[in-house]
Amino acid sequence: MIKITKFGGSSLANAQQFQKVKHIIESDPARRFVVVSAVGRANKHDNKVTDLLYLCHAHMQYHVDCSNVFQMIRDRYVQIRNDLHLKFPIERELDALWNQIKTSISLDELVSRGEYLTARLMAEYLGYAFVDAKDVIRFRYDGAIDFDFCEKSLQRVARNNQPFVMPGFYGSAPDGRIRVMTRGGSDITGSILAKCLHADLYENWTDVSGFLMADPRIVRNPRPIRKITYGELRELSYMGASVLHEDAIFPIRETNIPINILNTNEPDNPGTIILNEVTDDTKEDAIITGIAGKKDFTAIAIYKNHMSDAVGTVRKALSVFERYRISIEHIPSGIDSFSIVVATKDIKDIIYDILNDIRKEIEPDQIKISDEIALISTVGRHMSAHPGISGRLFAAIGKNNINIRMIAQGSDEINIIVGVENKDFEKTISVIYNDFIQGEELQ
Ligand code: ASP
């Protein structure tokens, strides 16, 4: 049994968190390959080391002294090393880094040091080998992961099942220089390891016990999601429910290696399992898996008589958005009209240019703009098999006097999206949750 265990920054924020990690690792012999993020935040007032490193770089760019910021980073690492009574000569590493900052260091190398130093300390603390991500995680010239290289080198370092700790978030470019992933990228490193080492499970340890069916700031004590498919998760994270880096799914998607989201502060909680396909659902499983949404969209409704007989009208309108490089969320359509729904922030400064171009391109009879639209996605792999779900959803919303401005459904029928006014956002989520989840619980 091989488990990849990845710990996020809050699981590594101080010596107490390191102790919890050690306890988790030692309680299961399958946990031999460990990926760590950089030392993170133990509470709201703390700083994440990665943020401080980016801050140092911003200072450097404007030739402003960053010694105070660097001192904060230094203090965090020295404190953890001392509290855990480790021997690692962290001052030497930090002095060398400080010299590089004063002479020359790339942004990628600088910000990767958070993970590097954390992994150094964790390796000594667990008594595991340290494997540098720059030697085993390789990017291609186009920025994609070079899986052939990674697989060969990771198999090599993992031979004989020798346990190791590896920093997440970075690897190297083909020329050997350090290159980082996007923020939160250690999740991706864990996923690359899971794929390349043919793991049975990828455990992603964070500070929440998996996903909840709805945002707890909106719904009181929402039920946890025990199992979710990659597809459902993608829908929910796109709509704003984020615990895992979105790209962490891609390396292991076809392998069907489950990802288990777990809580370092509550290790006995089973958390959420993410799978390509869930095959052991029972009748008792809820019809919907989760509800998420985002505010602040604009719908541009375009009316043109006899549009249904004309060819190319929608394409011409869409080409305007393409020209301005605006990504489109939805295109609900009627016979002689259609709406284009986009994020308000993307168009607010250029809306008049866009409207002028649309007028020129398709000479519409009328254009109407509606701002302040919120989109709410109700997601569930069981929805397509149950007739009447959308009816029930719309009825619940209607009964609560919420005006639905738009409806869309993904072609794989795992979600139904409704557009409502921003002001009705929270209420709509509660209404859907109460109808589908609370209602079932009460029966
Ligand atoms: N330390 C990096 C960040 O804060 C990567 C990670 O934590 O996954 O974005």
Q: Which of globular, elongated, flat, extended, rod-shaped describes the shape?
A: globular
The percentage of residues in β strands lies in: 15-25%
Main sheet attributes: strand count, strand direction, barrel closure: 8 strands, mixed
End-to-end Cα distance: 41 Å
In this entry the ligands are: aspartic acid
> Any low-confidence stretches, pLDDT <50, length ≥5?
none
Number of helices: 14
Total number of β-strand segments?
Answer: 16
Structural class: alpha/beta
Radius of gyration: 25 Å
Strand order of the largest sheet: 3-4-2-1-7-9-10-8
Mean pLDDT: 92
Order of helices and strands: EHEHHHHEHHEEEHEEHEEEHEEHHEHEEH
Helix content: 25-40%
Which secondary structure elements does this structure contain, and how are they paired or packed?
Blueprint: E1 3-7, H1 15-26, E2 31-36, H2 49-61, H3 67-83, H4 90-103, H5 107-126, E3 129-130, H6 133-136, H7 147-157, E4 164-167, E5 170-172, E6 178-180, H8 186-196, E7 201-206, E8 227-229, H9 230-238, E9 259-263, E10 272-275, E11 290-303, H10 313-323, E12 328-330, E13 337-343, H11 344-347, H12 351-362, E14 366-379, H13 389-399, E15 406-409, E16 415-421, H14 425-442
The structure holds aspartic acid (ASP).
